[in-house]
Amino acid sequence: MDDALRWLLDIVESVDPVLRTALAGLAILLETSVLVGVIVPGDTVVIVAATGVRSAVEGVILAVVVIIGSLAGESIGFGLGRWLGPHIRASWMGRRIGERNWLRAERYVQRRGGIAIFLSRFLPVLHSLVPLTVGMSTYTYRRFILWTFPACVIWATLYVSVAAGAAQSYRRLSDDAHWAGYIFVGAILLLVVGVFVAKKVIARLEQRHFED
Question: How far apart are CA 32 and CA 41, in angstroms?
Fold first, then answer.
């Protein structure tokens, strides 16, 4: 396991830090602006990029870029919803998402307001639909960004810090401890499973606001 993990981490680390960071920011931007996140979640891109972090400065820069990318993506999503919302909803991608999900997002925003905007960052499908849906509503951009900003900061900080911390701990321990690989895999799995469970719990608690 150690050889395979070291090989994978070396590949990620060999990518130019600027390029790696830029790709993570771009992936998050696309996730919330053009519905890419419905198909390919940006979580994975951020986790992979974070495993290549070698210093606190790199980690902070990556987190900041991911936050900026997330905010930019949600802002673009809001703008697209404001100007092209009905056309996107009627497009091939909009039909693929399904009318049920569009109505679900609409009801959620109508009933929960700003809380829906904040929590949508942590919910599957809705994190890509809510910016567009809010753009099609009477919400102002200022009100939208005030709710989504803290959610983006929390989300990015959590993913980058856990993934980077696990990778750095593995690098420090791998030469002396044969179980270092298990710690790394366990930490990543804990992050993935923890986020999955948290999303399920939040979705279950919020379910009554999705339906009539």
Answer: 10
Residue with tokens 């009100």: 143
Model pTM score:
0.81
For residue 43, what are the CA distances in angstroms to 39, 103, 107, 211? 12, 25, 26, 27
pLDDT digits (tens, 9 = 90+) for 153-185: 999 999 999 888 888 877 776 655 555 556 656
| Contact assessment for residue 37 and residue 97, using Cβ atoms and an 8 Å cutoff | no
Contacts of 199 (CB under 8 A, 6+ apart): 122, 123, 124
Q: How far lies 42's CA from each of 52, 56, 83, 140, in Å? A: 16, 22, 25, 26
- pLDDT tens digits for 49-78? 998 898 889 999 999 999 999 999 999 989
Q: CA nearest 47: which of 196, 166, 212, 170?
A: 166
